[in-house]
Amino acid sequence: MYKGIPIPIKIPVAVMPETVGDFSLIKLIQKFSESHGKAVQPFPLHAHLTTNGPNTHPIIVLANALLTQKRVIFLGHNLPSGEVAEAVLAACALASGGTLRGFTRHAFPYTDLTKIDDLLNVPGFIAGVTNPTFELHPEWWDVLCDLPTGKVKISSKIEPATVTEGMVYFQQQNPSFAGLVGGTSRISAETDLTGDQAFMQDILKSIAARRGERVIRAKWRDWVIKFTRIAAAFEEGVYGASALYIGGDDLDMGSTGVNGHGYVWVDEPSRQKELAGNVTRIEGWRNTRSYYSFIQDLAQIYTIRPLKGLDLHHMHDRLRTQRLNPAQSREIYIAFSKYIFSYDEICLFLSVAPESHAGLFYLALGLFHKDREVRTRTADLLERIGEHEAGQHWWKGLSRFEKLAYMRIRRETDADMRTKLEKEGLIPELERRIS
């Protein structure tokens, strides 16, 4: 309130890493998607950037450039400097996804020619400018995003991607997919090995449906997290181990399905194809600031994380993506019920089953399992989640059908308990005490 005039103020209740200022991912995505949608302009091939071939979506090219620490310029000729700065900050949040760090520290929301020498001394900068002279010097940048035209350009002077040991090892281990690495083949460009084309279509549909900024940011966060998990799977397959996975055998349950970890694919061919599509992007990311910062963050999180020997994300993804037989799904449901009790453990589970990914739907499917023990223990876990401070919101998101199944199982359990007590002669004793 100022002099009797109410002034609205936005106060964020949660701030993600690399989130600075009041920017809009929707605005950034729309800016560089409109011209691409009207007339696709092929990019010159670059292994780190054009992961879907010459027709890679401009936003994916931008995201790849940021992940692989390329020099990125946002040019806004005749535009207000504030609009240019907003695009730079939005790009930082885009690549970060609230998960990775190292972008805003080397971002220059607005700069000019007087600071070009200092700018060129910063590896992998993200800068906003309004002077069109920058466009005439492709040696100064690797990727240029022209805000007035909505076009993304790859520099003719960009340093080519080097062939790494990881790429060679992957091609040797998977000769049938060797030709798909790098996004340079016709097959890799047409088949969308990375899934990025389908992802961008989903993003644009969500924007057209006015789903809102929060939904778009959540989808990008999922994209970044998926990329880091695929990178971990790639490193484990090629190098034998990955610094992106910190786990242990604290919970030795003797079950392969429960003890597994990492990203989950529907089948092995899908795994190999997606890894082949991401090889160059992963190798380009492995020597960047955000990669090493992410490893440090994972190590810190691991020290305070509950259930260190159990990858709940992996287990939940198996329920979500794979066709499991009753015995396999039983192992997962029983493990969930056995180990998820405390406040922090429930929070950890909710983080891998967000409401944007159907919430408790896949857990609630345990209410319909053929094994009665699974149904009962799933109901017990859902009850604990429903009593949780945050979990109650997930509980409210369950369908009426699932809640009816929960109530039916509860009634059956109570009836069985009463019958058992009657057989043991405890019910009359309890009734006498109550009276």
Mean pLDDT: 89
Determine the number of helices (DSSP H or I, runs of at least 4 residues).
19
Distance between the termini: 61 Å
Low-confidence stretches: none
Q: Could you name the CATH topology of the domain at 25-165?
A: Rossmann fold
Helicity range of the residues? 40-55%
What top-tier CATH class of the domain at 25-165 fits best?
A: Alpha Beta
Q: Radius of gyration over alpha carbons? A: 26 Å
The shape is globular
CATH A-level architecture of the domain at 25-165: 3-Layer(aba) Sandwich
| Succession of helices and strands | HEHEHEHEEEHHHHHHHHHHHHHHH
Structural class: mainly alpha
Within the largest sheet, what's the order of strands? Answer: 3-4-2-5-6
Mind summarizing the main beta sheet?
A: 5 strands, mixed
Strand content: 5-15%
Number of strands: 6
What is the assembly state of the chains in this entry? Answer: single chain
What does this structure look like?
The protein has a five-stranded mixed beta sheet with strand order 3-4-2-5-6. It is mainly alpha-helical. Helix 7 packs antiparallel against helix 8 and helix 8 (213-239) crosses helix 10. The protein has helices spanning 25-38, 58-67, 81-96, 116-120, 165-173, 186-191, 196-208, 213-239, 256-259, 268-285, 289-304, 312-321, 326-339, 343-352, 361-364, 372-387, 391-396, 400-423, 426-434; strands at 51-54, 72-75, 107-108, 126-129, 143-146, 151-154. Among the domains are: 25-165, Rossmann fold (3-Layer(aba) Sandwich); 306-425, no CATH class.
